[in-house]
Amino acid sequence: MGTSITFKRPDGKDASGYLANAARGNAPGVVVIQEWWGLSDQIRGLCDRFALAGFDALAPDLYKGKVVPYHDTDAAGKEMNSLDFMDATTQTVRGASQYLSRNGAKVGLTGFCLGGAVTIIGAVYVPELAAGVVFYGIPPEQAAKPADVKIPLQAHFANKDDWCTPELVNGFEKAMKDAGKSLELFRYDAEHAFVNEQRQAVHDREAAELAWGRATEFFKKHLG
Predict the structure, then answer these.
(1) pLDDT in tens, 88-97
(2) What is the pTM of this model?
(3) CA nearest 87: which of 126, 130, 58?
(4) Is the CB of residue 198 less than 8 Å from the CB of residue 40?
(5) 38 φ, ψ (degrees, to nearest 5)
(6) What ranges make up the beta strands (E) of 95-150?
(7) How many angstroms separate the most distant Cα atoms in the chain?
(8) Which of the residues 30, 85, 117, 136 could staple to 55 if both were Cys, CB 3.0 to 4.6 A apart?
(9) 37-52: b (≥16 Cβ within 10 Å) or e
(10) What is the Cα 165 distance to its own chain's centre?
């Protein structure tokens, strides 16, 4: 449905990604950030789904062409740990946001796992954004403090998550609340990565559909 594109980062360098356009010409934009596996077919599929829901969706390729197979968690961890999160967010993600906002459209940011953490960093450092939806990812406080978040956030977390643990989620929720920030937070009795339908071991269709409906409504409310 979509197409591979190249766009400019604020520093003038080229970045690439997958773009799926909505049927209408003046659609709001959503930047979609990958899991730690890379820009997989599953993430492209989510862009297509956002386009059908009325958004122009762009998933920047943070791993520059590399996609890790689902079984290889060691390789995925290595890729994620070698990613410069601040450069990825303030340059590549911001460039994607600027690309989608070039006709005056409002832009939101969403991401899964690694992308959830990037979404919170983006909520602090990317001024083009109007709203963010986080899926099971939280960055360390030194990367992005909840008190510095500048946009309304919605967040989706799994109660059986051993990476983005319930304790971590509770701490994030409290810090956002204490800072008076706008946060809608939902917990699901599911595993980490429950939205990814390509991973049968963790996919929870009921939770995924509920979260999807909430996310698209939130973006319609804040992006138009």
Answers:
(1) 999 999 999 9
(2) 0.98
(3) 126
(4) yes
(5) 110, -170
(6) 107-112, 129-135
(7) 44
(8) 30
(9) bbbbebbbbbbebbbe
(10) 18
